[in-house]
């Protein structure tokens, strides 16, 4: 019998809606209406609003006064900013591996890449993406840099819908496993600087393809016009 404690309801809801956002069930720009979500998940307003707040902290959801929550939209500029900054931070994480024992990390990286190959053969996009994330997370953990980790986590969350859509559109063209293998080979030889350059190139390689997925600038419905009454001149 399992002794695991169930997730609090807001975190359970957050994860369900998060997965829906990542796989495109709730597309960028779509409204996340409380009544519809309450009916869909059989929940009350309080836990749902807390789930939305958690998703907002992760960068996947935005809130507009008087209009509620909606899924984040991605412009070309924002997509490029996310990818370039991720590339720089990933490079810094690899540079931080200098002087650390790498054998446990290399084993983790190989396992993650093998898992990616298994999911790729089965055309399992979600499993493939999770294994891909595990590869990069292993490097970040070994780098053991808390400010760096806290900087890249929200970027990775914001990038998840883009990465899923990119895989769905270019499944047979993914070169991530080969690029991971190159990074593993460089690290196994102690070539930290070369591995650092390689991982930055790996992250930004698909920046043009990722940007083409969301060619329109984000749009938000303008707030309703407020009727302005003429100001009266005060009597003297």
UniProtKB/TrEMBL annotation:
Residues 226-236 have a biased composition (Basic and acidic residues). InterPro entries: GntR_C, TF_FadR/GntR_C, Tscrpt_reg_HTH_GntR, WH-like_DNA-bd_sf, WH_DNA-bd_sf. PROSITE patterns: HTH_GNTR. Residues 7-74 form the HTH gntR-type domain. Residues 214-236 are annotated as: Disordered. Keywords: DNA-binding, Transcription, Transcription regulation. GO terms for molecular function: DNA binding. SMART domains: FCD, HTH_GNTR. CDD domains: WHTH_GntR. The keyword Transcription regulation applies. This is DNA-binding GntR family transcriptional regulator. It comes from Variovorax ginsengisoli. The lineage of its organism: Bacteria, Pseudomonadati, Pseudomonadota, Betaproteobacteria, Burkholderiales.
